[in-house]
Amino acid sequence: MVVEINVNFVNHMNKILAILFLLFFNWTYAQGESAERRITREEYIEMYKDDAIHEMLKSGVPASITLAQGILESGNGNSPLAVYAKNHFGVKCHKGWTGESMLLDDDAKNECFRKYETVYESFKDHSDFLVTRSRYAFLFNLKRTDYKGWAKGLKKAGYATNPKYAKMLIVLIEKNNLSQYDNFEKVPPRKLAKKRKPSKGLAGRNISRKIKLHNNIKYLKAKTGDTYSRIAKGNEMNLWQILKYNDLNKGDVLKGGDIIYLQPKKRKSKEAFHIVQKGENMRDISQLYGVKLKSLYKKNIMIIGTQPNVGDEIYLRKNKK
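^ thats the sequence. predicted structure below, dont judge the formating
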């Protein structure tokens, strides 16, 4: 009888410890997620209001509408498409597009989206898109200060499928006083950013290489002689981003053939599980499938830092039960 009580007590304590571990894991995971700097709505408006006004004076599209759509479509400039393709309006490649592109899952898998060198190009392309599509022609008969008419007209013309799209734009415009920019008659000359020259390796050669997508994450494979700093510089990134996105420490050694992600990894993979091979550790599996290392530990109810055994089944999409 005494033995039975002790076993029950131990089982109870194990459950409590497991719950405390998960709570602590979730807290530390959230702290890591919040460390990434995000643009606020106020910053977004200040950064791009001149571009919106500039395009309004050229095309006739109200600056308030452009800003509201940019805020809505890009999540204040923080969406992966905005960050890595400078595409703030979700414009897809469409027939005839010859510029660079980025593949993302949207209405269908691996849809083609336009990629720009500057954010202003995205604003300009947005204006051109509305000006050159006949179904939007009636909008240009409205006053540019009639943001409500423009918002409702965009929905009517089929710009978005969300039935509340017009209302969402109007709320954004009124809440952030974006209509004030529709009254501008001129804007300070826009300063075009100089194109940065690509970084070069030790021998003076360009270290840029083909960027690929896996699990909808941009990555490249390191070459012999590469360094984390050089890869960061060559892709206009900070070193801390390369280290964070790839679960690296400053002292880690980079080897030729290593997968280096240029965007944060996902919390799950399209594949269901992975069978551990000889010599593989949890970070290897994390890199192989583009799944955050902490998320991988959480899915498999493993203590951070421990390693799997050869032949173990590592869950990549759903949580292990």
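The first helix runs from residue 2 to 33.
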